[in-house]
């Protein structure tokens, strides 16, 4: 961190007469946090004697979900320790709540594992890399996100068969990238931080040095493939012609048109009417120019869609809209939003759940989906439910973790670390956090040790899920 200029060192008073801390006072806050919660102490993880049963937490979380889909969720989570970890944000939040916190708050992702980062299109039609899942976003301790990211990389490395020394090097490099980036952001102006982003041209240049020729080609092919994951690509993937009209094709149980849901105890006509009303109400939350864009499309069809791993069972629908003709599609996804897994431990959100997701995404992402919005639906399945809406696919792509070689995962981890630091720097006290982190390697070495310890616990929790499935306590469907 560089020296503060005299202008930045002076007290600042805002329009309401509130005096804001100087840069030096913010640095002191970080140093005070370091004394209260030593960086080496971040390595500690010991399960509490009264640790809640992780499976019990997952079952409680699932009570408000679509029950017929839950076996898919548990089947996906049982596939591997990493798959389990992806779906176990709530148990980890419960565990993190028992660890020491620096008291420095940011807008957290809440589920910052490595596959919740990825590429997508900016409104300027450039391929960018960023955090891309915000179902659990909420203001909270910044170190919780760092620990979840680091642990996900440790677990993925184990699943891929990397030796312990290699895993530790990758995790340490990931957290070191976060620390260095936060210190860089601490020396930037507020607008410089807000404008910072990772476009894939610069990312590729940074990553290429870690990869051999064949893997550089593979990365280029992956980016080219991401550009095909647009609305036209979704039209080919999800839609066809039914009774002479464009329609979403059934692929049960993963994609089920609304008209086919009657067998699940649903009145399809009533559901379709609710979804149509939801789409109209959602349009009202958009800015006028984006509402004008949406109004150029007409609704053609709705279907229920199974999404993700931990999200399976939440109500999620895709809508097919058409513009001028059948080659002018727009696919929107409306996904149910509930309380963040962090809320029980840091306090409830000030926003409706759908709006919470939208606000968090806009705060953390450098660029975003032009159709992002939220809506609350009354009387949906007999209840009032909140949804957020976005494009289904807009050049979206994610890393194929299972085929990563160690050098590739190291480069990817560093990119995730930088990206998470930028997201946190936008909403938290980046100067205080940078001061806490310091210039040495103490923090990343501590987090690597935490990640190792928590990955051990994750393996036990995954084994418990597999055992519960085998005993019949939990119903699961594999391979769906």
Automatic annotation (TrEMBL):
InterPro entries from the UniProt entry: DUF2252
**Ranges where the record places region Disordered:** 1-55
Stretches assigned to coiled coil: none
Stretches of Basic and acidic residues bias are at 21-31
An example Pfam family from this entry, by short name, is: DUF2252
Under what name is this protein listed? DUF2252 domain-containing protein
């Amino acid at each position: 961190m560089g020296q503060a200029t005299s202008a930045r060192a002076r007290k600042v008073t805002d329009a309401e007469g509130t005096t804001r801390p100087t840069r030096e006072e913010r640095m002191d806050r970080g140093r005070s946090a370091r004394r209260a919660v030593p960086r080496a102490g971040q390595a500690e993880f010991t399960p509490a004697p009264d640790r809640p049963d992780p499976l019990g937490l997952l079952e409680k979380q699932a009570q408000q979900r679509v029950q017929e889909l839950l076996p898919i969720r548990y089947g996906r989570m049982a596939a591997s320790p990493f798959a389990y970890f992806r779906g176990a944000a709530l148990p980890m939040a419960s565990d993190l709540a028992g660890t020491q916190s620096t008291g420095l708050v940011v807008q957290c992702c809440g589920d910052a594992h490595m596959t919740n980062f990825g590429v997508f299109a900016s409104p300027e039609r450039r391929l960018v890399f960023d955090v891309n899942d915000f179902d659990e976003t909420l203001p909270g301790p910044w170190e919780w996100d760092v620990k979840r990211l680091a642990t996900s990389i440790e677990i993925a490395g184990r699943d891929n068969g990397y030796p312990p020394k290699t895993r530790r090097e990758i995790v340490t490099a990931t957290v070191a990238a976060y620390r260095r980036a936060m210190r860089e952001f601490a020396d930037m102006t507020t607008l410089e931080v807000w404008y910072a982003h990772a476009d894939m041209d610069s990312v590729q240049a940074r990553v290429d040095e870690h990869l051999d020729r064949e893997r550089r080609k593979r990365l280029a092919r992956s980016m080219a493939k991401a550009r095909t994951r647009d609305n036209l690509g979704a039209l080919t993937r999800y839609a066809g012609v039914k009774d002479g009209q464009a329609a979403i094709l059934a692929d049960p149980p993963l994609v089920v048109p609304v008209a086919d849901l009657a067998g699940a105890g649903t009145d399809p006509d009533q559901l379709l009417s609710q979804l149509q009303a939801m789409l109209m109400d959602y349009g009202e939350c958009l800015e006028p120019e984006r509402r004008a864009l949406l109004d150029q499309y007409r609704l053609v069809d709705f279907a229920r869609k199974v999404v993700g791993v931990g999200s399976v069972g939440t109500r999620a629908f895709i809508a097919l809209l058409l513009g001028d003709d059948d080659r002018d599609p727009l696919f929107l996804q409306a996904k149910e939003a509930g309380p963040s897994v962090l809320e029980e431990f840091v306090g409830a959100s000030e926003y409706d759940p759908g709006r919470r997701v939208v606000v968090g995404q806009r705060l953390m992402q450098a660029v975003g989906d032009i159709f992002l919005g939220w809506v609350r639906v009354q009387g949906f399945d007999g209840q009032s439910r909140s949804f957020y809406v976005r494009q289904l696919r807009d050049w979206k792509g994610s890393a194929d973790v299972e085929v990563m070689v160690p050098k590739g995962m190291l480069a990817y981890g560093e990119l995730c670390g930088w990206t998470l630091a930028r997201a946190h720097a936008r909403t938290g006290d980046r100067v205080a956090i940078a001061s806490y982190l310091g210039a040495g390697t103490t923090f990343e070495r501590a987090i690597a040790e935490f990640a190792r310890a928590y990955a051990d616990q994750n393996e036990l929790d995954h084994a418990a899920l597999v055992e519960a499935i085998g005993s019949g306590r939990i119903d699961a469907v594999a391979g769906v």
